[in-house]
Amino acid sequence: MPTIGQLPAANSVSDSDELPLYQAGQTVAATRAQFLAGMQQQLALPQGTLLGGVGPGTAAPVPITIGANLSLSGTTLAAAAAPFEIAALPAGAAPAAGDAVPLGQGGANVALAYGAFMSGISTLPGVQAGGFEAVAAGASAVRSIAELAANAVAIEDFGARGDGVTDDAPALRAALAAGSPVRFGPKTYRIDGECDISGTAATLIGVPGQTVLTRGAQSVAGTSSQAAWISVSAATFNADGIIFDANAAITAQTWGVVIQAGCTASNITRSLFRNAKGSIYGWGLAIAPSDPTVTRHHVHDCEFTANAVDGLWVAATDAVAVTSCRAHDNARNGIYVDNQDPTLTLKIRDVQVVGNTCWNNQTGIVIGNFNQTNREPPTYGNANPDVLGALVAQNCAFSNSGYGISISGRNILVTGNLLVDNGPAGGGMLVNTGYCRVANNMIINSGGFGIDAGGSIHVELSGNYCDGQTIGIGIGGSQNCTVRGNFIQDCTTGIMALNVESDGRGTNFGISCNNLEIAGNRINYGAGGYGIVLQDAPQLVVVRDNIVSSGTSGDPLNALVPYTDSVVLRNNIVNFDDTFAVNPVAANGVNTLVYPDLLDRVTVSQSTGAVQSIISATAQRTEGMITYIKVTNGGSNYANATVSISGTGSGAAASAWIANGAVIGVYITARGSGYGPGTQVSITGDGTGATATVQVGLPVLEGRRLEIDCLAPVSFASAGSAPAQENWTGAPLTVPAGATIEWRGHAGAWQAARFIQSDYLVPAADGSVTLGSQAGDVRLGPAAGGAVRLISPTEPTGCVVLIGRGSPLGVVSAPPGSSYRNLDGGAGATFWIKQTATDATGWVAIA
Predict the structure, then answer these.
(1) Minimal CB count within 10 Å: which of 117, 123, 434, 592?
(2) Which residue ranges does the record assign to the Right handed beta helix domain (predicted)?
């Protein structure tokens, strides 16, 4: 069969010509017209256009116009503009959030705001931003984000969950090992104990009030000698904004959080320590002993609550500052600064407790202790102070069941504190201390005491305000102390000084009171109240320049109750009256002048007879009673002693204070009545040598001064007066109106030290004077070689009146006008007159 190429060529082709076609399984003929049906025979296009399809689907081609920036030349389509080059674009400004960014999105070109574009980057997984650079706020150096982030790492970066269930302690240790501060989020992180924090430095940063570290269990053995929940031995430690919750359900004997001796510098701020429930070691935060290493610890703006012992314990360390913290609802003390080292070598130095607030503890703030052996049972005293140098200032302590503040140590300044409603078991402030100053504190309604300073030595209490306590200031059993310039208001007793003080359980402080100054205080009391009370014969007491007011309801005679024989009184004032009025009254048939014990000056405006007795108000009230018993020999080897009182009276009782085997004092438990001269006291027991003297009533104090201003003539008896009213004349005295007499106490009697002798020399209103006697002669007795001389303003030499024996002629020299009486007598030889000369001549016998 010939091929197509072997066939002869056709002369022409028409639409009727037929061509073979395979169709529907068989070969058929089709004309050329059938083949070309539906096909466009010719394309007609305008010049400068292109052919193409622009509609949807398949359609006939249409002309396409050449747009701007394009040109068609022959068969070439070219761009009229330069190619788009970003580098060739003009420089722009830093993109703003509203600038547009081109983006292909969803198969289309879109413009996206630059701010929205950048915010989307953080949602892309796997994007590493560590290489970005930034300048930290306030800094100048450019650093990478990775470097900046390394400044503090999140505990979650080391696997912590922060769900309060998973133990995150391993993650915490790993994070700290990385060497950067560790950040916590506002979550609860379970940290099982013991968790040891060691190394060179450790810093924990939380969200204040929201970051909680809680103890899930105490299951890990640590390095602390006494088990702890968190033990910090890193050389430096910082914590901020973290709640340390030791978990109240865990009562194991462990510390809560403890700063060990190896940590020499710490700064803990805005953190809370709670629920350490070990009955012995239950401190919320403890700073363990490190003395004598120099340390720097600062606890600031923290809170301590619901701990089984103390909120914060500061042991034997140096330079600890506790400032602006809050401690409340702890079982014992809010803030406790003390170290009970039985070796007496560890000390606390240079501690500051400033600006804190403590409430609902036993004692708000405790500095030191009064146990000089640091062993039990205690031996009270100041011999071995644990705290050497401290500032306790501007704290507020209220509603603590014992004391607001307790101080014991050496060289402690306590100033500017506010103590409100503490007690009733104790009071505002307990000051068993030595060489300290307690000044300018405000103490309000604080139980038994405003300031309880028993047992103190070399302490100044000054400028304090005590309002509403049973005893404003207690200064008993103290030595070399000053109570000066305090304001004491509405206390039952303003200031009380017992000879020997005790802890209220019968254990005394081992010293008796002496060298006490009470000066310049303002004391206001009311009905049933007292100003100053000296009890059981404290010695060498000075009470001066105080202003004591009994108000409208109190008894002014209670301004001072001095059960002692050793007190100096100077310039005190009762009820703002410098001329306190007292007048003699008959008492048991005796004309008696009763004066307030506090005063050394009174005024008498009338007297109906000679004053036969001058006694103080307390002396009058205690006649026949036992007022005090003074130990004259303490003896030795006493553990128990009995005090017995014998005499004409009955009902008196007393007990002994014993320290180091000696009787150091006796306190009266019942004064009895009916006692008088011959009353005796004896001390018996298992020791030997103790002796004492007993006082019935009150004596006239040795050296006691009493100035009496007499607005009317007042006579003072001599014979029969009791106490004796002695003067050098031995006769009664009369002090004229407008004159003053000063009495001084000596040997239990009064001696007139300064007075107008109107019984012998009486000036008159006309300028004259009368010399007389109460009885007997008026005697003029010049010294040997002297004479009675008569002078006048115009005759200053005057003449003399002489007596002698024998003739004066040639023997006695005298000026003219003088007289001489010969005591040998004889007619014409007894009375002589000097007529001439000033020597021994010129005498003439005239009788």
Answers:
(1) 123
(2) 351-498
